[in-house]
Specification:
Layout lengths: L12 H4 L15 H4 L28 E7 L2 E6 L9 E6 L3 E5 L7 H17 L9 E5 L5 H4 L3 H4 L4 E3 L4 H8 L8 E5 L4 E6 L8 E5 L4 E5 L6 E4 L2 H17 L4 E4 L26 E2 L2 H13 L4 E4 L4 E4 L3 H24 L5
Parallel strand pairs: 4-5, 5-6, 10-12, 11-15
Antiparallel strand pairs: 1-2, 2-3, 3-4, 7-8, 8-9, 9-10, 12-13, 14-15
The protein binds zinc ion.
Zinc ion binds next to loops.
């Protein structure tokens, strides 16, 4: 199996645990920390991720990197050798079921066998022998092709639900009757996740909050990269609701579904880039949520590409956004091709 579980650089996780202390009043709803008296489980998020193969060196990355962040919490990344999107896929394992957020940008055969292996290991480690079959829920941060392409590999899997990709289907599954203002839940067995509807990038977009670790998965709505905004008023409202949610829940980390920025503030890799040696982590400190909300307020009404330190908002999908993105991507690929062609042969 094509897996790699790279040893993370071990820093003290608690040193880096950046628990959100929002200025928002905490009195309206009890915090999850208060509802669950258990402390949040720490995650080791200091991971060296695969980031593509250097041009001219063939494929050097495995097709899927699998990283255990903590007990029952696994994050995977698909290789840039297979798809420039290189999405991150989250697997949360509870006592009675597991939740996979996104099935990726390519055929799901490798992902399916990996998830089967991870579920089997999780069950083998469980002390109690439960009678009911262990379930898998395959849900999606949103319905774009690079997040659902592996679905077919799970459709015939026993005890598995592949959640639909329309807003009504997502709402019905997670019990969100009043989309998008209501918050849904999914019980995984000793582990509850909250599901927040966040349309704007795409109408069925959701964020997933894991009460066990404080991780808030924000998909393509907030990640270190280009946030494509289909519906600006909807995204404004969604970011507002996320900030409000984070004000009443302990958020330890935000997690995006891709990385497209470099570690230089405001600078991204070109569209379609397959080698990103200087990329930041997909995990973001919680304060970036308020910053993104505030930044978006300043550009929500202006079609075009708007650069900020940690992300870029691409508002609308007209020529003002598409032409510069594609032109830069094409130029970058032409430059790479020329470099390969004219590279001096070794002496
Ligand atoms: Zn998307």
């Amino acid at each position: 199996m094509d897996l790699v579980d790279r040893a993370p650089f071990h820093r003290s996780v608690t040193d880096h645990l950046n628990v959100l202390k929002s200025a928002a009043p905490r009195s309206r709803r009890p915090s999850v920390g208060a509802m669950n008296s258990k402390p949040l489980q720490a995650l080791d998020t200091d991971v060296a991720w695969i980031h593509g193969s250097p041009p001219g060196h063939g494929r050097t990355d495995p097709s899927l990197q699998v990283q255990t962040l903590g007990p029952g919490t696994v994050l995977m990344r698909q290789s840039k050798d297979l798809t420039y999107e290189a999405p991150f896929l989250l697997l949360l394992l509870g006592r009675s079921r597991a939740l996979l957020v996104d099935s990726g940008a390519v055929d799901g055969a490798v992902l399916r066998s990996t998830v089967d292996h991870l579920v089997a290991s999780h069950l083998a480690e469980r002390a109690s022998g439960a009678d009911a079959p262990y379930e898998l829920v395959v849900a999606h941060s949103h319905a774009h092709g690079d997040h659902i392409a592996g679905d077919d590999a799970f459709r015939e899997r026993p005890h598995t639900t592949v959640v639909g990709t329309t807003a009504p289907a997502v709402g019905a599954f997670f019990g969100i009757l009043n989309w998008p203002s209501e918050i849904g839940q999914l019980e995984l067995g000793g582990r509850t996740v909250d599901v927040i509807a966040i349309p704007g990038h795409e109408e069925s977009s959701i964020a997933v909050y894991d009460r066990t670790t404080g991780l808030l998965h924000t998909g393509d709505t907030l990640y270190p990269g280009r946030i494509y905004v289909e519906d600006p008023p909807a995204l404004s409202d969604s970011l507002e609701r996320l900030v409000e949610f984070a004000g009443t829940h302990e958020v330890t980390r935000l997690l995006g579904a891709h990385v497209e920025m470099t570690t230089t503030a405001g600078r991204d890799y070109p569209l379609g880039c397959r080698y990103q040696p200087d990329e930041p982590s997909p995990f973001m400190p919680p304060h970036q949520l308020q910053e993104a909300r505030d930044a978006f307020r300043t550009v929500a009404h202006r079609t075009g590409i708007h650069h900020f330190d940690n992300l870029i908002f691409c508002v609308g999908n007209g020529p003002r956004v598409i032409v510069p993105l594609y032109a830069r991507g094409v130029m970058d690929r032409a430059r790479q091709a020329a470099r390969r062609r004219y590279r001096r042969p070794p002496r």
